[in-house]
Structures are given as C-alpha cells and as structure tokens.
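Quick illustration for those who missed Monday's session on complexes.
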Amino acid sequence: MARARLVLDPAFRVGPVHRRLFGGFVEHLGRHVYDGIHEPAHPSAGPDGFRRDVIDLVRELGVSTIRYPGGNFVSGYNWEDGVGPVAERPRRLELAWHSTETNEVGLHEFHSWLEQVGSDMMLAVNLGTRGTEAAMALVEYANIPEGTARTEQRTANGRAEPFGVKMWCLGNEMDGPWQLGHRNAEDYGKLASRTAKAMRQIDRDLELVVCGSSARDMPTFGEWERVVLEHTYEDVDYISCHAYYQEHDGDLASFLASGVDMDAFIESVVATADHVRALKRSDKKIMISFDEWNVWYLTKWKEREAEFTLDEWPVAPRLLEDIYSVADAVTFGGLLISLLNHADRVTSASLAQLVNVIGPIMTEPGGPAWRQTTFFPFAVTSAAARGDALRVALDADTVTTERFGEVPVVAAAATTDGATTTVFLQNRHLTETTTLTVDVTAFATAGTVTARSIWDEDVYAVNDLKDTQRVALRTNDTATLDGGVLTVELPPVSWTAVTIA
Ligand code: AHR
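Prediction with alpha-L-arabinofuranose bound:
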C-alpha cells in the first residue's frame, strides 16, 4: 500500500479559479459540427438542426467559454462564407482536414447554439491566409452595435444585437509548419501586434490571445514565446499553450504522469513571459490561455493521415474519433489538477475538443449521444472547483517512470469557497491502492464528506456504441473526516474528487 499526506490551509492560496479554466473548443473538423452538434435529420434535432441530446450533455459537462471555429481550420477560413442566407453560402475545399466545408453552420448559428448550451464565445481570426483587414471586419460585424454597412449586414442576417465577443485568438498555431500561412516568430509577432492594435481600435475591451507554441517539443519552443511577446507584450493579454498526451508503447506509468510535463510547460512559459516583462520594465503580467489540451492518440492519426492524399473531399468524415479508456480519463484528470495548481497564471483553458473529435461526448448519426470516460473528471471538476485554488503541501511515496524519473505517487489540487472544499486526486500507482491523509484542521474538524472516483479493474475499459455506459463515476465510500484529518483510499490508476461541505 502506498502512502501520501497533504496539508491544506485556507491562508495559502494560488489564486481564484476562473470559470474560463473550464472552456471548450469546437472546430469545423470531421464530425464535430456536421453530424455532431448539428444533424437536422436526427430525431432529437430542433428546427435549427442542433441535436438536443448533445446540447443537454454539453450543459451537463459545464463548459464556460468555447473557442471557435478552429484550430487549423481557421487558417484557411473566410468568416463571410458562414453568414447570410444558408442556401447561398459557398461550399469550399477545406485544406487543413482535406474535407468539404458546406458553411451551413457559421457565426450566427454557432452563437445561437452557445446560447442553448449556456457558454460564451471565444473567436479565432484567420492570420494564415488572411490578415488584419479581415480580422477588423469580423470585430466590427460581431461587436459594433449599429450604424455601419457591416452592422446593417448583421441585422439583415437576423441579429440586431452585437454578439459582444470578448476573447479573441490572433490566429492558430502559427509556429507549426503544417499551418496554412505558417510564419517565423518575427513575422508572426509583427503581424499579431498590428492586428491586435487594429482590432482594439474598433473595440477597446477585447481580450487578446497571441499564439504560443503548438507543443512543448517544438524546436522553436521558448524562443518563439520570447520573440512573439517582445513584439506584442503591450498588445495582448494572454499567450496560448497547446498540449496533447497519449500512452506511448505501453508505457502507462509515464502517461499517467503527463501532468508533470504540463506543469513544466506552464512554468517555462510563465518564466519566458516574465523575462520579457523585465526587459520591457512593464507592470503588466501576461496570462496563459491553455486553449488546446487533451489526451489525443496523435501517432494513430498521423498513420491515417496518408489516406487523405486521395482526390476526395468528403463532408464531415470520421476524423480524430478517439475512444477514451479509464486510463485516459485518469491522465486527463491529472491534467486538470495541473491547470488548477497554476490558477494564478492559467486563467483560461479550452478542452480540445467537445463532440466526436477527440471529445468527451460521442454521437452516432441517427443514434445515441454518450459520455466518454473523460467526460466525468471534467464535469466533476467544473462543478466542484469553486473559489480559490489552494497551495497543496504534498508528502508522498514515489513511482518510477521512464519519461519523468521518480514522481509523487499522487497528484493533488484543492479549491475552497469557504463553505465547500474539494480535493482533486490522481493515484498514479499501477497496482497499489494509495492511502491519502489530508490535514484540514485549518478548515474544519467535522463536515459532510463525499468522494467520487473513476477507476476500473480493466484500466482500458471504454464507453462505446456497443456499451455506452460501461464506465461511470463511482462513489468512493472510504473517505472519512475525523478530528480534522480526512482519509481516503485511492485505487490504483484512479482519479478522485473529495468534497467536504
Ligand atoms: O485539435 C486538433 C488540432 O490540433 C487543431 O486543429 C490544431 O490547432 C492542433 O494542432
């Protein structure tokens, strides 16, 4: 049996947990929009073509801000193609994912879907094939109340009120050679600065995200952030981070410890941003928008990518439809723990993505919609992480991993809003239960304790079309609170949230 001990004190806080930490991402990719959220022929679809069963699941997931419309897709997208009468919208070749974009869903439709799911919009502008002028036109169309040709066009298209979009991404992954319009850091930094200034001349309340690295292992990582921020420091509020994790060659121990990599990623970007802050003698702190994160079996996708060199441009093909296991959900829970532990600097994050495409929700055309294993840690954390994130003082046994060496057997984060405290835990041990004690004397000696876990004797169990409910949250009835000490047993390869009310 492994052991771990935590001490929590409400006086030691990381910072407030921003609701935007529980954001999502919808890209026009594969069956995400078409045959995912939008399937007019589905029995649950409303007159607008959006599936109600999917809307209900997205609401249950508890997603705050949703990034749209890409991703790689945005770097070749004309936003104007997605507004106006649907029957007149052009079909276009979509180069990022080798598909045909029908443009049946665009800005107006997506906004009305967001109103139904109860989330805010975060828009990305195309700095790949387009630039400052198209970004300015979109800000004017979306956010200016009235009095110009573009605002009249918006009204004629059915929306008199402005959309009032606050968060904007200045392009997507512009460091990646795969990106349409990929640039070096100097060129992108200059373009992002010009575009940000112009967008703010139209709406000074925008919050702007400049592209950081598309992965920590990019050859330009670190230097990219420094150069881009040197050009844009006073123009932007956030720099982005993107990270995807997968189990490589059966190395489950390293995979479960992916949060260690995410911690290092965040801390390096914070250090680089603060270095530029020192160079600029600035009082301003740049925040991180971790606007793509997830488990993604990218190597499997790369093997399949060759199929897409054919002369076919399908509408809504099945792409990136990873089916997640219990081990994936436990790793995913560890990534949420990493985000919470950096709540002072990571004030926005987007789970990439939401439906069908590396999503916590899957659908079948004409059939059911269901929760993947990763749905559970996200939904629980989004609902329970309230108030402030606390500094966790952890003393734990260790496990050995090939990629990260010795790591604590448990990863932990905690939040409190005064009335309710929740501790989020991941047991990385492959075979042993870990007994965890948490000293909460600074909060309470008594209270109601509830604990929910994701674990299974088969760590590779999944929810799929054959059995959509094979994996679910389990009540963990080992949790007790006695004399200010919370004790809980964490099964091997598990994720748990313990709430003291
Ligand atoms: O989320 C899938 C893709 O991953 C996005 O389109 C891109 O930004 C990233 O490389």
